[in-house]
Amino acid sequence: MERVTFDKLNNIEKGLRTNSFVIASGTIDKVFNLENGDYDILIKDLNKDQKIVINVLEGSTAKISFFANNELNNLDVDVNCYRNSEANVWFADFSKDKNVVNVSIYLKEEGAAANFHLASLTSKQDDKVFNISAKHEAKNTYAKVDNYGVCKDSGKLIFDGVSHILNKCVQSKTYQNAKIMVFDKACNAIAKPILKIDENDIAANHAAVVGKVNDEHLFYLTSRGLSEAQAKEVITFGYLKPILEGFIDEDVKEEISKLIEGRM
Amino acid sequence: MSALKIKDLHVSVEGKEILKGINLEIKEGETVALLGPNGHGKSTLFNAIMGHPRYTVTKGSIYLDDVDVLSLSVDERAKAGLFLGMQLPAEVPGVINSDFLRAAVNVRQERPVSTYNFYKLLDNAIKKMKMPFDLATRSLNEGFSGGEKKRNEILQMLLLNPKIAMLDEIDSGLDVDALQVVGEVIKEEQAKGMGFLVISHYARLFDLIQPTRAIVIINGRVAIDGDSSVIKRIDTEGYEFIKTELGIDIEKEDGEMNKVSIGTCAVKESIK
Questions:
Q1: Which of A30, B143, B200, B231 has its CA 20 to 30 A from that of A208?
Q2: CB-based contacts of B128, cutoff 8 Å, min separation 6
Q3: Residues of chain A contacting B, Cβ within 8 Å
Q4: pLDDT per residue over A124-165, tens digit each?
Q5: Which burial class, exposed, middle or buried, applies to B217 when counting CB atoms under 10 A from its CB (0-12, 13-18, 19+)?
């Protein structure tokens, strides 16, 4: 895929070129229209307080990968999926301090599908809220939200969000999964995935788990000679690592791996 | 030559005493078959030796040579030369089998083993175990069949090369061919001097590995410490003769049902 920088991207008037790998950074605050093709967009080094709207137009597929490694404050992202489009959103959160991230996925037309994956590492005094919602506004639409978090020190991490299937959106499927692994007593971790279902002919489930590292996993790894700290690091890395799938840029992958290892 | 010495070991699980004074000694190069009815303390003994946090040692001692095993953390016990091949190996999502194995090998080295040397080591062990190489690149035990998990335990034993290996029902889940492979590998390690404590309910594994001794644990104590002929006898007659000949009443397992928690949609907040 051809790489296009954000500056160049700004100069493209009628949406983005297809089959391009785009790196966007800084203040984005804009609307992306993705049409007629496959897109891979990496959004990183975000500035504070902004709103991004991504329209995945008919028949297009988009991989949208967010990498947050500094302060975010307020970030609003709307992903609008149109007929037979597919959006795969990956969010690697290693931001610091206080932030609220709202991601709203709208499945606007028949056959639209979206997957959302979040991996968040919250530590020290971080205070983070992720509202990840999916709204099914047409029949035969699909959404899957997977939120994974690790909470350390005095960090506060909240996974919130509503998956909503509107009336008459038959054959729609919606899934939500929120898991937070807690390391220290001073952590505050809450996972509350909510389903709102206004139609009978659908499939839906949700799951929430907040808990400490599994004792059996810890025993297994330490019984092979890894110290408790090493075992916890290995487990955390394994827990957050699936997010790497969402990034094709090797430098970013390496940076994420280092951030996981460094902060553990 | 190394020896594991267990004296008057009492172990409780959640306040209930399971082991009530175990005395046992095993030397490197020995293979000891550990038998006994379900729920009488065989796995408890292994877990207590390895240091599982659920098992509390209330009395007694465990020494590996002159090292006080009970004073060591779990990882220190492993590094001292103890290995537990588990009955139900944990599935650890996201942790790649080979990464984990390499980390486990490296903690035993002064300098980390090179990538090339590690893969050579791993490749040899995998070939010996007749395992597909892709098992090494998958998440640790996740999605492995019962037999694959057990082979993976033996693979770890091969790579970590302990002084004493405790194998807890390593034959369950193995098909006939896999059992043969595991038996051959154990025999090879026996010849090199590794000591084995092996729990199994079936004579087939013991036929392959020819234990030097057999120990029967009843009611949390060693009821028989003898030669391997007792294996054949238990295999054909069961444990009833212990009651009639030794006058030991065999306590029945608790009839209490396992506590089952039904999945819930509610949010669990363990720490707030």
A1: B143
A2: B158, B185
A3: 182, 184-185, 187-192, 206-212, 214-217, 219-228, 230-231, 234-235, 237-242
A4: 999 999 999 999 999 999 999 999 999 999 999 999 999 999
A5: buried
Q: Is B256 among the domain residues?
A: no
The two three-digit tokens of residue B191, written as one number:
């010849």
> Residues with Cβ < 8 Å from A115, sequence gap 6 or more?
A87, A88, A89, A143, A144, A146
Domain assignment present for residue A61? The answer is yes
Looking at the domain assignment, is residue A246 inside a domain?
no
What is the number of structural domains in chain A?
1
Query: For residue B178, with 0-12 CB atoms within 10 Å meaning exposed, 13-18 middle and 19 or more buried, which class applies?
Result: buried
- CA separation for the pair B152, B133 (Å, rounded): 11
- A105 by Cβ neighbours in 10 Å (0-12 / 13-18 / 19+) ranks as buried
Q: Are A155 and A129 in contact (CB under 8 A)?
A: no
Three-class SS string for B214-255? Answer: EEEEECCEEEEEECCHHHHHHHHHCCHHHHHHHCCCCCCCCC
Rounded to an integer, the average pLDDT of B176-204 is 94
pLDDT beyond 80 at A30: no
Cα dist from B69 to B66, B81, B168, whole Å: 9, 10, 19
* Confidence bin at A195 (pLDDT 50/70/90): very high
| Containing structural domain, residue B33 | 3-246
Contact yes or no for B220/B36 (Cβ under 8 A): no
Note whether residue B200 is domain-resident.
yes
Provide ipTM, 2 decimals: 0.90
Number of domains observed in the structure of chain B:
1
Range of the domain at A98: 2-212
**CB of B73 less than 8 A from some CB of A:** yes
> What is the pTM assigned to this prediction?
0.79
Choose the closest CB to A225 out of B79, B95, B265. Answer: B79
Is residue A226 domain-resident?
no
A58 φ, ψ (degrees, to nearest 5): -45, 125
Helix axes B97-106, B115-128, angle to 10 degrees: 110
Name the region of A34 (left: φ>0; alpha: ψ -120 to 50; beta: rest). beta
Closest Cβ–Cβ partner in A212, A224, A228 for B104:
A224
Q: Is residue A18 part of a domain?
A: yes
Helix axes A228-240, A250-263, angle to 10 degrees: 140
On whether residue B269 sits in a domain, the answer given is no
With CA atoms as reference, report the closest residue to B210 among B194, B187, B226, B192: B187
> Residue B229 forms beta bridges with which residues?
none
For residue A25, the model assigns a pLDDT of 60
CATH number at residue B42: 3.40.50.300
